[in-house]
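// run 5 | inverse folding | seed 20
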């Protein structure tokens, strides 16, 4: 990517950043959300029915609002990671990571040589569609793209120290719902055991020079995570925000009858 990576610059400057998940395959919806002034959005190709063609249009809409578009790929898939990076996202996030070898493969697939083995074509949006940018793209993209993973289960927690030792890994996202499930507390994301584990991982992540993140499902959650020094906070999901807003309006209407 040759463009300014808004979110990585903010994180490197010590700022905390706020974003949301995008599962609705709508460029207009993304543009509306970005107009609110968030720092980033994550285009979710794990759970959302979003094509790469639509994702690229979403990336363009995000950048027009100075919002960083990230993309969640459903698995450690070299071709999928390559396509996501080629459309010009500011970062990739891969779910369900369990061990250090998986992290090394993500770095391998998302970085150009000599760091990794990412396939190279300047004739993409990330290369500004021109072979004139060949050398510049290789040099800049390795430094400019945010690389993140999701820590969601017991195996990953057991391996967290080794995972955090991997060079070029930027972001550790702690999936609270899957974490609660792995602790035998499925869905209880505010349970003390879940929050204690979150706090431990956050501390280890910061000590390793990387950025910890998670999802907030309420204003109280968000405030709590800021106090815990989470650097990268997602607030809910686009479909939930829309649906819950209209449910609230409907309920107010019914009560007024």
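// decoded
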């Amino acid at each position: 990517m040759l463009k300014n990576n808004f979110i990585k610059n903010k994180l490197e400057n010590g700022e905390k950043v706020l974003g949301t998940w995008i599962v609705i395959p709508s460029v207009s919806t993304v543009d509306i959300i970005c107009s609110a002034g968030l720092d980033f959005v994550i285009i979710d190709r794990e759970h959302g029915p979003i094509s790469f063609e639509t994702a690229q249009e979403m990336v363009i809409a995000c950048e027009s609002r100075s919002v960083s578009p990230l993309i969640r790929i459903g698995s450690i898939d070299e071709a999928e990671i390559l396509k996501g990076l080629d459309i010009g996202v500011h970062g990739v996030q891969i779910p369900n990571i369990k061990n250090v070898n998986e992290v090394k493969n993500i770095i391998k697939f998302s970085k150009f040589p000599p760091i990794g083995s990412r396939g190279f074509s300047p004739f993409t949006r990330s290369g500004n569609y021109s072979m004139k940018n060949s050398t510049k793209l290789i040099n800049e993209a390795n430094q400019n793209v945010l690389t993140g993973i999701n820590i969601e289960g017991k195996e990953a927690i057991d391996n967290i120290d080794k995972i955090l030792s991997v060079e070029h890994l930027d972001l550790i996202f702690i999936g609270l719902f899957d974490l609660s499930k792995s602790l035998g507390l499925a869905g209880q994301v505010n349970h003390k055991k879940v929050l204690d584990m979150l706090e431990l991982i956050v501390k280890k992540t910061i000590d390793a020079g990387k950025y910890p993140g998670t999802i907030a499902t309420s204003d109280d959650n968000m405030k709590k995570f800021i106090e815990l020094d989470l650097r990268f906070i997602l607030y809910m999901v686009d479909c939930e925000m829309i649906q819950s807003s209209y449910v609230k309006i409907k309920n107010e209407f019914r009560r007024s009858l």
